[in-house]
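Quick entry between incubations.
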Amino acid sequence: MTPPFETAWQIRRRARLLAGLGWGGVLLACLLLSAWVSEAYPAALLAGLPRVGEYFAKLVPTLHWATLFGGTKAEGSLAYWFYRLDSWAWLLFETSQMAALATLGGAVGGLLLCFPAAANLAPNRAVYLLCRRLLELFRSVPDLVYALILVWAFGVGPLAGILAIGLHTVGATGKLFAEVVENADMQPWEGVRAAGGTWLHGVRFAILPQVLPNFLSYTLLRFEINVRGATVIGFVGAGGIGQELYQVISFNYYEEISAIVLLIVLVVAAIDLASERLRGWAAGQGTP
Amino acid sequence: MSTERIAAAEVARWRARLPRAFAPAPAVRVARVLAWAAFLGWLGAVLWWFDITPARLWRGLSGLFTIIRLMIPPSPGAQWADILKGLAQSVAMAFLGSFAAMVLAVPLGFLGARNVVVNLLAHFSIRRVFDGLRGMDQLIWALAFVRAVGLGPLAGVLAIMAAEVAVLAKLFAEAIENADPGQGEAVVAVGGHPLLRLRYGLLPQVLPVMLAQFLYAVESNTRSASILGVVGAGGIGLQIAERIKVRYWDEVLFIILLILAMVAAIDFISARIRRRLIG
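Done. Structure below.
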């Protein structure tokens, strides 16, 4: 005779197995359906994957030990690979400045909208809902879509890209800022208001000193994201290194592609490191 | 209750005794002025460089206003079927790309975890490779894969996979590092094989985290899959880019609204599944 514990365990085990099979079946069905919709047929994959390998193999530059440190004329040298380093470095600098200006503008927009969008400071419910919806609208449209539209209105060039990234940043930072404000200590606010301060006085003297370090840290985090965004915003003609990258990829200048991508990765990593340091410093600036 | 006003002489006396209570030190003041001057100088230089003038902004804004007026009311246009197909493609690309990324990221996550690959140099260099790959935007991958396998959603799937692998591998590695070693030690202590240790000591701890990260990846990739089509990698982005090219602004707004609805729907479903699986 099987002990009752053993049977109970068997039943439980079988139920779990069936549930696992059920979920597995749903997952498999979803995978097959999405493979069919996204045209990832086995034949296409078999034909495509070797070409992916070939393509990425071509991106690897031919470097020779003998001439590695030769001049720009020596084939196989680093200088030959990066033969347009000066113009690429300038474009990358432009890209980073676009990201900085867009982040600044977006963060100022977020700063203005976050106080009425915080539940504890909003003068009334209508203003609160309006500001929240506005921030959502700014945030949920990708910056590339803004760029596509703004290129028509402002013309090809960095201005359209800056505005596109900035608009998206208003929504993204505004939401984070509003959440910081909602978590702020309200006693200083009550003090300022009780002493006869206006709403603006309260924001300036009671709330802002508490939340500024957090705002700074979120803005720097957004700057890191925007630098990545600014490297590709040029694909639609909105300035920066993206325009150059789009051209070399379109013309299949293989070695230039890898050179530019490597530069982008290095610059993004350097900016991330610097910004991480600054964020650490900003976090230490809060009330002791 | 009456409030006494403080006499001006009293204020002046305290100001003389405690100058720091009224104003920061002169050195701090000078530093602040210099910082503001540097900031304003940078701002002026950048604005001049990018030729951002009020006149140009005004002209652009009036153009933008015209576009917005043409957008309203949004209309689906004649190609309903194409738009719906694009939306379905975007979701499918996001799901398939994230799933493939997860499958590849599990072994990479083990490689990147400090308690699995103990060699410090190997650990450090593997993590830096993940970091470097994350520095490349998804659109760069998409453009490269379009050149490699041709136009279409397959390029988008591969781009999402390539960009997401590095992100998920890093998150998985952190989840594995944060797992409690005690459970695995217990499995070994009762005589379990090292594989059983992974299965019963580690997997139950990291699986919920991995599933949650996968669902987040699907959500964020649904957002990005809606723009990959701009460079020809399939999905709704192609539809939107084509309509912007021919300036059918009412249809552009319609598609943007559909994208927002799609993203909200995927977020909702994913949140439901996450709560169900992780509790």
